[in-house]
């Protein structure tokens, strides 16, 4: 395996705002405002996550405030109508909660967020106990990685093993996360392999090749 992928534990927030099932509606709104978050985990017992209340779960209360006409209500999902009358976290929450483990890779967490269409995930241990929260912004932190650090990893873990001298002479450049590989290589069939591996390096935005095999140029 090339490099050491970051895990959720590397970027998650461990100081977390959470509520119990009986937390009232107003407390939920105040907590989201105070903590500047879009969702809070709902816990019970010693901290086991049983659900999540998000801004989307609270909005039906505002939508139905003016007692809209019956035809409007018929267009709303039954769950939204129920939440429009709910006043506690236990009734408002989405359950079971979509969670992620601390040892999951950032790519795994990103896929979970995308599938569930959520902005934040509670991080739990093997028994479902709350350990932290990871957000979309947290997952993007890898793109703050410096170009020099990216270049060193790509050179050490990918370019040198795949294109060793003296058969190949490769120059590597990294600018704003975009990796460019230039020079001469012996076997252009390895270019797709190198491209896949470079794109998997954390912090890489894109990869470009301008290589030559003998007198013939190869671009990917």
Automatic annotation (TrEMBL):
InterPro entries: BON_dom, CBS_dom, CBS_dom_sf, Diverse_CBS-Domain, UCP036990_CBS_BON
Entry keyword set: CBS domain
Record domain CBS: where: 12-69, 93-150
Ranges for domain BON: 146-215
Pfam families hit by this protein: BON, CBS
Stated name of the protein: CBS domain-containing protein
Biological source species: Streptomyces misionensis
């Amino acid at each position: 395996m090339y490099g050491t992928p970051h895990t959720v534990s590397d970027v998650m927030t461990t100081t977390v705002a959470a509520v119990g099932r009986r937390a009232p509606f107003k407390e939920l709104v105040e907590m989201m405002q105070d903590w500047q978050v879009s969702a809070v985990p709902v816990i019970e017992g010693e901290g086991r996550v049983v659900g999540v209340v998000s801004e989307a779960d609270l909005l039906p209360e505002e939508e139905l405030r003016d007692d809209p006409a019956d035809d409007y209500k018929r267009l709303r999902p039954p769950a939204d109508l129920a939440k429009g009358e709910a006043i506690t976290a236990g009734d408002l929450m989405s359950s079971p909660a979509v969670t992620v483990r601390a040892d999951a890779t950032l790519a795994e967490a990103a896929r979970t967020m995308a599938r569930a269409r959520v902005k934040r995930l509670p991080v739990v241990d093997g028994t479902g106990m709350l350990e932290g929260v990871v957000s979309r912004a947290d997952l993007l932190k890898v793109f703050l990685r410096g170009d020099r650090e990216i270049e060193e990893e790509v050179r050490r873990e990918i370019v040198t093993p795949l294109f060793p001298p003296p058969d190949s002479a490769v120059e590597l450049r990294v600018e704003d996360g975009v990796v460019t590989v230039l020079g001469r290589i012996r076997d252009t069939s390895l270019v797709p392999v190198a491209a896949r591996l470079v794109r998997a390096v954390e912090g890489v935005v894109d990869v470009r090749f301008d290589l030559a095999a003998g007198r013939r140029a190869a671009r990917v």
